[in-house]
Amino acid sequence: MDEYEWLKRRVKLITTDNPIYKKINSENDYISTFRPGAWTMLKELLLAYYAPQYITILRKRDWINELCYVDLFAGSGVITLKNLGKNYLGSPLIVKYAIKKNFDKYYFFDNDEGNINQLKDLIQDKDSSFFYGDSNIEIDRILPELSKQGVHSLIFIDPFATEIKFDTIRKLSNIGCDLMINVAAEEVKRAVDQYYSQNWNTNALDGFFGGEKWKTDLANIASDKEIYDYYAQKIVEEAGKKRPSSTTIYKTLNGHHYYILFTSTWGNGERPKFFNIIDDFNKHIENIDGNRMMKFIENNIENDNTLDRFADDKNEKLF
Ligand SMILES: C[S@@+](CC[C@H](N)C(=O)[O-])C[C@H]1O[C@@H](n2cnc3c(N)ncnc32)[C@H](O)[C@@H]1O
């Protein structure tokens, strides 16, 4: 299948082919967490691609009897994109309504009460729990449950920038879980640069890196990638996790990017099998950045009520 067909199919699953997409676009009063660039759609596509295959693989482990999804920065369930008008599925709606596999339990956290109330409204089922407040603190309420034998979790950590504290990651080092962390390298690097150039307040960075050592370790860094590498190394050395794998989300192919880091408590040194899902995804999106995604969405969703037009466009350039 060529990239065009692949992207078309994947986008349809989380938009026009999806009843919840129709629902959130038929009424106007949904709150949208924020208005990121179109690149954010790649992150949602990744989650929609990863989660069902991950579930399939983990269901084969007979020592797991409860598989959980934990979303520590869940948002409102609805996102809108900069300069575009439609509502799209945020991570909670992706895992609940855009994939064909189920987790046994879902835990959603956000520190915005409006977001949590909207999520409760959109997701009404007995398997989901909602927590309003700082997830670095509120997570303590579910750690006993997640630590039980036979329980395993996929924990999605998707802050704007430095809101996830490294102490929270450390808390997760001893429980059966896999982490999917949005490492917003561009924003973190900007904050680091501000510290060096203007002696900016560093509380948030100290929390993010779990101490002050970063002040010396990062003195000579020049790129977003080095921020990611530093964080990935900390995950291995200080949080007892496997060497991470990642997807790079390019805002522009030559410019800023952020990383979705995957890591695991799985196995004894070997690379978890489900990391192959990430490799597959990466091959499909390697030439797609925020600008291309923007054009794609604009042409095929925002200005069209249906994706049928894809069929006629086949021989035209995709982006
Ligand atoms: C990038 S958005 C999440 C988007 C969502 N994961 C999605 O894919 O649709 C970050 C969210 O984290 C929330 N947030 C920020 N700081 C937080 C904290 N300390 N604890 C819990 N939620 C927080 C914000 O209210 C916002 O909704």
Architecture blueprint of SSEs:
Blueprint: H1 3-14, H2 19-26, H3 40-58, E1 66-71, E2 78-79, E3 88-89, H4 91-97, E4 105-110, H5 113-122, E5 128-132, H6 135-138, H7 143-146, E6 151-157, H8 166-171, E7 177-183, H9 185-198, H10 203-209, H11 214-217, H12 224-238, E8 245-250, E9 257-264, H13 275-285, H14 290-302, H15 310-313
Parallel strand pairs: 1-4, 1-6, 4-5, 6-7
Antiparallel strand pairs: 2-3, 7-9, 8-9
Structure explained in plain terms:
Helices cover 43% and strands 15% of the residues. Strands 5-4-1-6-7-9-8 form a 7-stranded mixed sheet. It has one domain: Vaccinia Virus protein VP39 (Rossmann fold), CATH 3.40.50. The chain starts with a helix and ends in a 6-residue tail after the last helix. The chain is built from 15 helices and 9 strands. The model is unreliable at 305-319 (pLDDT under 50). The protein is globular, with a radius of gyration of 19 Å. Strand 4 (105-110), helix 5 and strand 5 (128-132) form a beta-alpha-beta unit. The chain is an alpha/beta fold. The protein has helices spanning 3-14, 19-26, 40-58, 91-97, 113-122, 135-138, 143-146, 166-171, 185-198, 203-209, 214-217, 224-238, 275-285, 290-302, 310-313; strands at 66-71, 78-79, 88-89, 105-110, 128-132, 151-157, 177-183, 245-250, 257-264. Helix 3 runs antiparallel to helix 13 (275-285) and helix 9 packs across helix 12 (224-238). It binds S-adenosylmethionine.
